[in-house]
Amino acid sequence: MRTYIFTTFLLFITSVFFAQQKEFSINWEESVNVSTSDKTYYVPGFNNQYFSFSPVYGLKYSNRWEVKSGLSPSSVKFTPLVTNTISIQDLKDLPLEALPTSPQFDSRTSVSRGKSNFEFSFSPVYYADNQVYKIERFRIEYTDGRSSSNFISIIQAADNSVLSSGDIYKFSVDKTGIFKLDKRFLESLGMNVRSINPQNLKIYGNGGAMLPLRNKDNQFFDPQENTIRVVGEADGRFDDEDYILFYAEGSLGFNAESLTHINAYTDKSYYFITASGGAGLRVQEQQQPIEAAASVINTFDDYQFYEVDERNLLNLGRRWFGERFDVINEQNFEFNFPNRVVSEPIDIRLYVAAISESPTVFTASVNGNQFANLPLLAINESILARGAAYDSYRFPDANPGIQANGDQLNVQINYLNNGNPSSTGFLDFIAIGAERKLQGTGEQFSFANNSVINAAGVGKYEIANAATISEVWEVTNKAAVTSVSNKEGLSIFSFKSRLGVSRKFVALDANDFYVPQQVNQSALVQNQNIKGSILAARGAIDYLMITSDLLRPQAERLANHNRNFRGLNVKVVSLEEIYNEFSSGNPDIGAIRNLIRNVYESAPSLEERLKYVCLFGDTSFDYKDRISNNNNIVPTFNTYFSFSQSQSYMTDDYFGSLDPEEGIIENGSPVGNGGADRLDVAVGRILADTPQLANSVVDKIISYDSQTALGRWRNNFLLVSDDVDLPWEFEELESTIDALGDQIQIEKPFINVKKIHSDSYVQQASAGGNRYPEVNEDIVNELEAGVLVMAYLGHGGENTLASEFIFTRDNAKALNNSDRLPLIVTVTCEFTRFDNPNRTAAGEELFWNSQGGAVGLVATTREISVRLGVSFNQQLTSELFSFGTNEIKSVAENLRETKNQINDDNRRVIFFIGDPAMKLGFAKPDIRLTSINDTPLTQQIDTLKALSRVRMAGEIVDASGNRLSAYSGDLSATVYDKYVNRQTLGNDGTRNAAGELLILDFKSLGAVLYRGQASVQNGVFNFEFVVPKDASIPIGNGRVNFYSKRTGIFEDQAGEDQRILVGGLNEDAPEDNEGPLINLYMNDEGFVNGGITNTSPTLLVKLEDENGINTASGIGHDLIAIVDGDEENPIILNDFYESDIDNFNIGKALRKLRDLEPGMHVVTVIAWDTYNNSSTADLQFIVAGDDELKLDRVLNYPNPFVNYTEFWFNHNRPFEPLEVQVQIFTISGKVVKTINQLVNTTGFLSREITWNGLDDFGQKIGKGVYVYKITVKSTLTNKKVEKIEKLVIL
């Protein structure tokens, strides 16, 4: 079995280096608002595309350009050319202390799907020599090395995993050192010790350290074989007294990338043992140098820490803290370093944090001598906790080591709250490094001397008090452990080793071996071989899905859908397999990323590289289930910085940034900046933590690509804007999204752009604040009528859009639009923050709603600045709607490309929730209007006058304009009146600097004059309708919108025409004084007046009129439903009405009624024809509480009968499988026939059960009167109800 490693090769066939330079100007503008809330926060502004701001890292200029090869940072020189001073007042809200003392230029090369970019950033405003400077022009000089070959990454030796064959058993360790595995332990794992050859025993594992974040720092992609000692193996048997010794590394140890000693993902590390295969690696005797030792090493560097992860201060980021400092503001921590060299200083790490609205201080001392005074700033709206540190390792000049006496070290920490009793301090960790004499202590211990790295030659390690030390193992290389034996039990034991290399040793005490632990599940590991099955073939894998065993069946359903519907090569891999193979059994997000990267790099060509990654499962900020109700199914990346609602984020970008230098992800991490990491694959996440929820979500995704989901709604786009509370919101929010809507209309004319500007509605005051009830209602109505995309721009939170609650979590839960699922884009604060399992965000409810909601979300999970939200929406809109092209990419790919164009680090908070391969359901072009009233559009055509009868004809054409003569299908046509010029109302009285009320002039779609259907045969269609009397009289251009779905296959087309003229009145229209005919039902046409429904039935309205139905929204002429006489709150049905195919005289509307109380209800429907004649109809119905199963109107039909009858009954469980039993009795009570059947109805009437009059033995029953009992049982609640009736056989 070969070692599985990742090797990179730089191939240069010919190389030429060119010294070049570029000059740039910064166009300084007015100050800009970078707030993430309603409160403004202004900073100096400049070119938007290069601007980024973070409350943590300040103001940055970021830019990049494409290069053919990487530029080394050492070859880049940054020179400010024009720099001017500015006043402190010019900084606006940017505090002086937030400015750096220099530009802090930073650069690197980023790569995205093979395209390289040189990226750089710096602080264009800085403070030096008591002056504030801003850079206006600068130069970058660089050496461009161009070669005929690009950077190539090669996966080497991708044959098979060590887990692919044999009997392999898994166990864990909880510390670092020498472990003993005896016969009893092996048997406890399930190993048949008697049948093994101990010489073949092997242990695999990579220790318990977290995998490196940076891609190129990862070396191992399979469990590595460890050197072991098997005592007693020589005889080929594993006897009772035989045992195994091996060096294992636990999960504890300092990690520089996360500044912690505790593995973020696991408290144990895992190893695998097997006796299958050939002989294993064994500890060998160390071959000591023959040269004389140049130095004696009799001390070592010890390191101890105290760290407890008990609480995440803000439920943000990956930092966890231990002790609180509030009522008890002083605490002591003891450290013991036996045989310490007291003449040498100790190094200390102390990391603390505080939450306080006033400045506070931590002080710390060792054995009474203060060494640290750590001030912490007050929190603010952007930074909700503050941290401070003393670190002799990272900052030796500012935080030097200190002198202390004795082996016992007492660290005293004191928190000074500055008189603020609400202030609370927190300890992250304390760590102390001290030099100790190399002496035995009666137990095993590890040792290393860091000073040997800088020495040369041979050194002699000398251990005192060594009588109980049996041997010393060098464990620097776990695959080549060597030992030196102290066979004679010398009190002073020595051995020689070469210097100049960092080496680790363990002194073994024969009476002190550590004991491993069994795993909770079965120790026997099922053979697996991801590399052999997925990577070794080096085939083109399009789509990789990561999930848990719990959710795998549902993930496979989605995978099959993408295989069958999109023709993608999809592989599903479980987390347990990934962890075992890529992180030696440890749950580590790096294992997931390393698998993805290996699949990506293994493609036969750049064009065939992995495109999509689906993380199928929910996630949480808690990797270790420390909080209640945790649901960390598929973990995600969390930032080290953990104190800000905007900068402390989770992101799945970590799994899609796959180039060697990438993986740090966040700016300002302990090991550098990762904000320039770019996405190579499109990533999506399925939010689900139970099989039931996953099944429901997958149902929705699959249904989106089904024939039943095709419809005219796919031509609709809905934009929603917040109102204008502050002047800057007028341009940044309201005007921006309105302009985006207009641009979409230009780029994609077949899209019907519907606008809901909150400020164009009348604001209402309530006890809970200002509200827009009509906005709320209209958003719900539009979503239920159907839109392809809804985009919102404005403020928001976890529970609502806008402070006026224009769309809430309750609205999301109640949506009923199952066959009209939109993509919802809400680049606003925290609307879909899904990593806190104890709080459900509104975006989650949209995705989880089994009766509707959304098929996917582009949504934020943390706070985001309005400035970034605006620029992101602009870029994303261009990608989503494919400006300039008809090529439709997946939504996740649109998001990937958008993120790669944005420099702001805060872009990471934006996720795609859904299937990453899902494409928006844009219909193909084109549908063309050819004539009106049989006059070709190339000639002068009739004006569509009110009350005129109009005949339109057209054809379905391909992209080249050729008619599809073999096309047949169903067309939906929507004819609009002229566009309407509207204005917002300025509800909040917000004015600009000139004192003018901020009013937006905008254009919206005109009233719907006709919405109906027509059949398409041989690629042509025609339809008729009467223009409503409510059509606007002035003549102008209207709009006709077409949508057609092809018969028999999943295909649709769209088109439009705006050449039609609408206006005037047909004075010669025939007379019509009769209102429309109305028929009302609940759920289906089998409903009987007075029947039973549940609390949310669907109202079915069927209408008929010789001149058609008016849906033009004329004043007082809406198609409405009124429940229980509540005329103040009518239900508008205009957008839900559509005429039948090829008959504009009849049509129907379907609308769900919600949350009705149990009892009798009456719904009244008022309908108007195109002549404005009205009719009214009522329907009575009884609502049964959803918890109670109802059975009513039991009968059999026909009755009496001869040889056929149906059993009918009403119930209140539509769509729910019901277990129904019908028993027929003689008058004396004898059972002659039993019928059991599972019934599932879309409405409330069942008549599926039939009987032919034969008994249970197939014999004809005699004539006469019989009694039957119907029993109905709910499969969901197990409640049942029964009724008895009579029947007569003739």
Explain this structure.
This protein is mostly beta strands and 1290 residues long. Helix content is 10%, strand content 38%. The chain is built from 12 helices and 86 strands. Strands 13, 15, 16, 21, 39 and 40 form a 6-stranded antiparallel sheet that branches. A hairpin with a 2-residue loop joins β28 (360-366) and β29 (369-376). α3 (552-566) packs parallel to α6, α4 crosses α5 (589-601) and α11 packs across α12 (891-901). The chain starts with a strand and ends with a strand. The model is unreliable at 1-16 and 147-157 (pLDDT under 50).
Cα(first) to Cα(last) distance is 82 Å
Morphology: globular
Largest sheet: 6 strands, antiparallel
Alpha-carbon Rg, integer:
37 Å
Task: Provide the β-strand percentage band.
Answer: 35-45%
Mean pLDDT score: 92
The percentage helix is 10-25%
